[in-house]
Amino acid sequence: MHYYQYNAEDLAADDYFKEWVCAPTPATERFWQDFLTDYPERYYQVEEARRLVVGLQEVPRVAVSDEQVHQLWERIEGSLERAKVPRLGRWPGRAWLAAASLVLLLGLGWWWQVPSVPPLAAESTPSSADWTEAVNNAGQPLEVQLTDGSRVLLEKNSRLRYPRAFAGTCRTVYLTGEAFFDVQKNPQKPFLVYANGLVTKVLGTSFRIQARSQDPDVTVVVKSGRVSVYADKPSPTQDPEAHGLVLTPNQKAVFQREQATISKSLVEKPSLLIPSRPLRLFVFEDATAAQVFEALEKAYGIRVVFDEEVMKNCRLTLNLSDEDLYQKLEVICKVLEAKYKLIDGQIILYSHGCDT
Amino acid sequence: MITKTQNSSLWNAFRGGDRDSFQRIYQLYVKELLSYGHKITSDVQLIEDSIHDLFIELWQSRTNLSETDSIKFYLFRSLRNKISHRHRRDVLYRASDVAHFIESLDEFSFEKQLIEHEGQEQLLRQLKKSFQLLSPRQQQALDLRFAQHFSNEEIAQIMGINYQSACKFIYSGLKVLREAVRIFCWGLAYLTITC
């Protein structure tokens, strides 16, 4: 049959036509354009069929939440963990026992009446019942204590879903809204927070996540420790974490949900990491630039990048104990006639050097 | 979409016991599997249980699995078998369909059709409404064909029916849906409004 005789549903059901609509090549494009030039009266059939094929790529899909996907994975991992431990290992040594019991079982006729339990049904235990949800609609932050000892301070209008017990190889929770996390250290079981398409992975640290469902982006601010953030986008060839960022204290990551891009910058008010008094005193007497920047790096946990060769003659006598990081930088730059920029969560210094 | 070579190297790594590849397979296909599950049954727990069992068995029997260049086909077929196996006890096959049907009829007023007739979005909405009026098997076949891009032969195998039946479900479904995208009908709607 020639395509001229095809009606819309014939065309939509045709492999060659579908290929043109879904993944056009120069050859198919030419073929169908020629067809329409030759038979303009078939335009309606072609257009209707195209609408069917385009529409049907979307229409049958049922929206599936990331949360459902991750919960189901946790459940699968949990079952695999449990299936692994007790069964293997012991079995070979007790094979004779098994054989003996089998004989015994066969002998006892009434055993036939015991309903057989399918092995997989027995394993499919950790279902949605093992998850609970904390919702904070009050004005005050709500403290949630997790079973691993981690604490979550849930801000108002926020929700946190977490398992009653952390099974599997990861500790996974889901956040909508804003919360501060203080995670108990456990290098064997990374702690993962899924929030609006961004995954925040830590071993043990404290940080804040802002992921309001109406906001176009997600922000992660690190207070202590190291945090890795990456987009929740599975790929067949690459580890999604490889496309993420590692954050250190006083850095924050902003994840644009629409474009799925992550950028890194410094927090608005970097705080001092070192509690001990003597190190907090920024009193320098005829110190080299390198000494001053090193002190800043240590105190705030932020990398300072500068050209040691150019600035080798720069010396500073300063008292900066009361200023915050940016004020300190202002003063230092004024004295050294230098400039600074914040790039990628680091401080970059531009200087022409100093005269001796 | 991923290529055939990526597909089979992922599958082979998984068969070799690589847990990361196993997780990647899960993440690549689970949304489509869940979505497809909804075409077979409306029981979400049943869908989740079946996918859970499917992946547990997949991992446990990985060394006995053969080479494949379509993981997706393998997963879809196994899921269909699992769900229908567990489903057999249910006498009322997808009982919620009836409620569903009445609900969609309610929304399907001709007036609405006349007022909102423009744009791609409207087209999709229209198509969605008509799609819900189809039988579960028609929905399944169209999903496999147009959203999952399986061939008619594969669809027949996944659904456990013969080739002719698969083609029939697709074709009869398209025939109904065509009314939702008909150009002539829309032109008429314009006329009715202006007159």
From TrEMBL, chain A:
Query: Can you give the residue ranges of the Protein FecR C-terminal domain?
Result: 282-348
Q: Which InterPro entries match?
A: FecR, FecR_C, Ferrdict_sens_TM
Q: What Pfam families does the entry give?
A: FecR, FecR_C
Signal peptide residues are: none
TM region positions: 95-112
Query: What residue stretches are annotated with the FecR protein domain?
Result: 138-227
Which Gene Ontology terms cover its molecular function?
sigma factor antagonist activity
Q: Which UniProt keywords apply?
A: Membrane, Transmembrane, Transmembrane helix
Please report the name of this protein according to its UniProt entry. Ferric-dicitrate binding protein FerR (Iron transport regulator)
From TrEMBL, chain B:
Record domain RNA polymerase sigma factor 70 region 4 type: where: 126-166
Q: Which UniProt keywords apply?
A: Sigma factor, Transcription, Transcription regulation
Q: Which GO terms describe its biological process?
A: DNA-templated transcription initiation
Q: Which GO terms describe its molecular function?
A: DNA binding; sigma factor activity
Q: Say if the entry is tagged with keyword Iron.
A: no
Pfam families membership:
Sigma70_r2 (PF04542), Sigma70_r4_2 (PF08281)
Its recorded name reads: RNA polymerase sigma factor (Sigma-70 family)
Q: Does the keyword Heme apply?
A: no
To which protein family does this belong?
Belongs to the sigma-70 factor family. ECF subfamily.
Q: Where is the RNA polymerase sigma-70 region domain?
A: 26-89
